[in-house]
Amino acid sequence: MTLSRAFLLFGSDEREPTVQRLQAGQLSVDLVGGNLRTVRFAEREVLRGISFLVRDRDWGTCEAALDGVQIEEGAERATVRYSARFAAPDGAILRCNATIALDLQSVTFAADFTADRDFETARAGFVVLHPVVGVAGRPIAVEHGDGTIERAVFPDFIEPWQPFKSISAITHEAMPGVTAECRMTGDVFEMEDQRNWTDGSYKTYVRPLALPWPYILKAGETLRQSILLTITPSAPPVAADGRTPEAIEISLADISQTLPEIGLGLRPEDLTEELRHADLVAELGARHLICHFDPGAGHGVEALSGFRRIAQASGAKVTLECFLACRQALDEELKAVAADVETAGLTLSSIAVSPSVDRQSTPPGSTWPDCPPLEAVYAAAQRAFPGLPLGGGMFSYFTELNRKRVPAGSLSYLTHCTNPIVHAADDLSVMQTFEALRHVTRSVRAIYGDRPYRIGPSTIAMRQNPYGSATKDNPLGRRIAMANRDPRHNALFGAAWTLAYAATVAEAGLEVLTLSTLCGPFGLIAAAGEPMEDGGKRPLFHVLKWLAELAGRAGVSVETSASDALVGVGAATDSGRTVLLANISPQMRVAALGSVGKARITIVDENWMRSRTDEPKAVDLRGESVRLPAYAVARIEIPR
Predict the structure, then answer these.
(1) Which of 286, 299, 363, 534 has the fewest Cβ atoms within 10 angstroms?
(2) What does the pLDDT look like over 395-443, one tens digit per residue?
(3) DSSP helix/strand/coil, 388
(4) Rounded Cα–Cα distance for residues 355 and 357 (Å)
(5) To which H or E segment does residue 557 belong?
């Protein structure tokens, strides 16, 4: 059977929504599924997006079914009109009539919406996204609901709470000599720093989080909201060169940090398959097993015995990530865990503990759930496991660690995860999360200094949902926010995403980085109906193996002239340098390497996948450049 190119790249033949560029003079927008993204003036990004969104009670996105789309275009203006239908999980319907108007210096997006019966929602209305690159730390003027003007800056380090509330308008300098005012009407707006979730944006949205949610849109009541973006040049703008360079320049420089050891997650629900593939841990070169353990979910000696068997087969160190129900005395709960570990014969290299209630996020303004002080939790863990290195932080995401900052004085290391599909699951948004991830690690270092630091397991698919009652099932393999399966993990996109993640955090000085479980939907082994054969290795296996080979070595920074297209990381080796490059875009890219001597290159790309060979092969690199197809990953061995 001939596999489609889309299937090899994304693990799915599902097509992303059509993107239509609308333009009026120097102002342009991309129309995608009835919403706007990448608003540009003189080819510079002014806003990342303006969207009318409806969330269900668990913050899942209610998809818009569009009807009657009418587009009128002229040289100096464009107009879009449509109606949309949003369905809640309980069958309630919200109908929206929208109008988008674009002229030489403004964009207007207005919506009237009505529910056919009481409609339960966590949020319904406009969301405006300001970009991060070139904006973080820069001046902003915020007009509040009472007419006052606050002059401040976009946050540099990531704010745990909303940096601005009661917003009527936001004005910033989009480029030298050009200001952009974004005015919002129809509800109370506030801003959150979406880098908390590794979104590459600051998000301004309707309805303060301090108000109760979910809430009800009453049947038959029509609401109206609008967004008006106005561009004001005080001098002729200098247009960016919108051309894609023929070759992307690559430069290498030593960095002070060594590259982290690679971990693999283990989950009791995948234990049978994990035991079958225990030999892959050593083949990969993973040095840590991050073992999920939740007594409240029925995990006990059987799960711990399985972890022991995999550790013995691989020689990897074991970290137990243990949830605590905190319903009994802490000493009793932790001594019971210690007794199970001893019964299973499991040798731990470290243990991390977290109260179960901390897996659910507490939004700003909400009441914190009952929970023993973390100081008491950590002290009880040290008594139950004397002398064992103790980790703490959040087993969910940086968001929760930023909001509930842990007392780190008694900890041997900090830990958290991230997830790229909390708010949006399209390909571009997922890859743009790396713009924010570097700010996440900077912020952790600003808060906790040089304390040992671990990240993961972090995967494209969501392993747990701190913001609702459950993750979203995805049986059809689509691009769905908060989904517990994502087809891109299984394909080239997942391999490129994995390397880009490692490259982005390379200078954070991590001890351990975990970007996969061993098996299951977050793992290394393909299931039926995937680009690789059932039981074969997913493409990201080879990326993680390459990263594991470089663990503990002095890092090499890989700078590119187009970081939204090519990213990389490298390390010094006994024979020279090894550089790993990923194309994180859907187009062919050319990397200009300069004179690298008799280098060897190994590429994981769609051609290799079509060859159905198990291991990618190294070949001599010819010339001073390399062509990387969409979402390809390359390993380049450069001699001294």
Answers:
(1) 534
(2) 999 999 999 999 999 999 999 999 999 999 999 999 999 999 999 999 9
(3) coil
(4) 5
(5) strand 554-560
